[in-house]
Amino acid sequence: MTKVRVHELAKELDSNSKEIIGLMAGFGFPTRNHMSALEQEELDVLFERLTQAYDKKVPVPVFGKQPEAPKPAKKGKKDKQAAESNPNPAQESTPAADEPIGRKVRHVDTRQTVVELNKIDDEVIEELVPTNVSDDSVKKQKLKKGSKFRDNNQMKNKAKAQKEEKVNKGPITVKIPDEIAVGELSERLEVPATEVIKKLMMLGVMASISQSVDFDTASLIAEDFGAIVEREIILTDEDILFNDFEDAPEQLEDRSPVVVVMGHVDHGKTSLLDAIRSTNVIETEAGGITQHIGAYRVRVNERKITFLDTPGHEAFTAMRARGAQVTDIAILVVAADDGIMPQTVEAINHAKAANVGIVVAINKIDKEGANPDRIKQELTEHGLIPEDWGGDTICVEISAKKRMNIEDLLEMVLLVADMRDLKANPNRKAKGTVIEAKLDKGRGPVASVLVQNGTLKIGDTVVAGTAFGHIRAMLDDKGKKIKKAGPSVPVEILGLDEVPEGGDEFYVVDDERMAKNVVEKRKQKAKEERIGSHNVVTLDDFFDKVKEGQIKDLNIVIKADVNGSVEAVKQSLEKLSNEEVRVNVIHSGVGAIRESDVMLAYASNAIIVGFNVRPDMGAAASAESQGVDIRLYRVIYTAIEEIEAAMKGMLEPTFREQVTGHAEIRQTFKVSGVGTIAGCYVTDGTITRNTQVRLVRDGIVVHEGELASLKRFKDDVKEVASGYECGLSIEKFNDIKEGDVVEGFNMVEVER
Ligand SMILES: Nc1nc2c(ncn2[C@@H]2O[C@H](COP(=O)(O)OP(=O)(O)OP(=O)(O)O)[C@@H](O)[C@H]2O)c(=O)[nH]1
């Protein structure tokens, strides 16, 4: 067998004899000099020690534990340079003890496309490449090239065996993303999945091999297996393409506020927008005519305000439901002669849910019977305390029609804007939101967009939802051609290849090829989503989401038949809040469940609870397509019981009703001895003789029971399909009126 001397080994490993001798002494071997031949046992120990040092990545403290720092086995040129510039090299590779759990390691997701590193910021690349990469590769090369050990079969096998042993025993480094499937975690930890599941159970987490656990749980498990944890951040094509970095405070500049006008029907929203537009419009040299581009800007005391053109909370919440936050401030218009009405309350709740500032415009003060104090009183009942009553809600008394106090209102909007400290960085690539878009016969797809950060320029390459293109022309709100638009500026853009949707985010990008790739994938995903389901909370999966740490609040929209029940339900449900779950009633009102309720629920991840009310057709359809959970009850007690059970994850397998169809009452007849017979028309589905039925009047359930008879002409029938007329009577119930709706339903067991 070839003898290996200390100096030879040192040379092979690019170390020095002194270091090897020191190491041997540390392991308790007899003192040697650089010419000493090494015994097999000594070689084994040294080899293990040194290969460990080569292979080991920079250790990361897991939960404050500081693993032993690897001793550098080689001092390459780069290391030496680093040592010169850093007097304490140990600090370079060993993270500070107070660093958060797991170091953030960025990884380029190269699974989907070719990554063009020149498109990524230098800063990001620095982070992408671990500092020890070059050193490691050099070391590994050294061991391979011309090594004496290479010719030494015995040593080679030894190395292999030791490496395998290390894999089995030594600490490994695992990269864990924000969420990881149990199966994947076990693979990365190189342990059987059953072991991982067992450990999870000991932590009180029940998860199967295909279920995912979050980073914190996964790292606890990994640490338990003695692994070193690194946080994995997967950068997708979109992350790289849009490069949505945060601006440094010194890059930020003030931007003007973006305002929406909300309020009850006929309280003067449109009149107010018109009044503002006509008195404060920013003049252009050409004296351009105001164009409708979904938003416009006005000037107030040398400052500007951007107004969204579409009044009402529906459009606002529809955008929010798509993830877009475009508004900073809502002007809540309340007619002084009318007071707070149902849509005013909706608007307040929608604005609060979106966390936008509210300025109240008490309108129509020119009218007789106008009573601003009464409005203020009513506002307090909805959590808006006027400033002059010691609160922080600014109220301005105006007349949109007579153009009174409009200037004051705008100044107050600016005041609220100042308090919100609105800033953006005009010196970066633009991003923002599509306000509206259409296909213009002559000009092709036209999109009105609001720039929210950066500056948009002619020629920019843009991705907006699933649309892509180069900006061919830009027009401002006066129809004037402009070359660039900064933060809070609405513009109309031409040059997209298809019509995006309102609420889509747009980004200016550099890499056209990657952009096209991203757009293709989005189209594919949108297609899949249309087929698949949405990820909104339902009572059934609520507890799972709480357990997974995804949510802590159970948001609820309540609709009931009378005001008394609304209040009672609201209070009882809010009382269910405990340490883990807070129950928030984000909106409540009297009457049928409408589409705007579903939109609010969808945007705020809420469920809808209805008492003796029904969803109208639009609401039912949109709840169905958006996956919003509507729970309908007759008794408050049942609702409380069910929601409490859901909060504890103890929802029983339940029976859920399945609506079979609807029939509209067209005529009623009183037949003595029989009761009221109704002539009706089946509008959808089928009405079946033996289903249960409920009678609904203006969205409110008047009665629930069974059919006493179902006839076509004179014959009794089992079922009447949509599009046919029929006659029916309801068991022990005669108060049937024209215009009522009969809803047929069955109770079916729901698998959970
Ligand atoms: N006297 C008086 N009438 C007003 C004032 N503001 C609006 N109106 C009238 O109130 C009515 C409704 O005004 P709109 O601006 O259309 O109200 P809106 O809130 O936009 O209504 P919808 O778009 O239907 O929701 C119109 O007849 C206006 O002329 C005001 O300050 N004073």
Q: How far apart, in Å, are the first and last alpha carbons?
A: 69 Å
Q: What is the total tally of β strands?
A: 34
Q: Strand sequence of the main sheet, in spatial order?
A: 8-9-7-10-11-12
Which regions have little confidence, pLDDT < 50, spanning 5+ residues?
54-152, 283-288
CATH class of the largest domain: Alpha Beta
Instruction: Let me know the average pLDDT.
Output: 78
**Strand portion, in percent?**
25-35%
Number of helices: 24
So what's the overall shape?
globular
Query: What do we call the CATH homologous superfamily of the largest domain?
Result: P-loop containing nucleotide triphosphate hydrolases
| Bound ligand species | guanosine-5'-triphosphate
Main beta sheet strand tally, sense and closure = 6 strands, mixed
Radius of gyration: 35 Å
Domain Tr-type G: 254-423
Keywords: Cytoplasm, GTP-binding, Initiation factor, Nucleotide-binding, Protein biosynthesis
Biased composition (Polar residues): 85-94
Binding site for GTP: 263-270, 309-313, 363-366
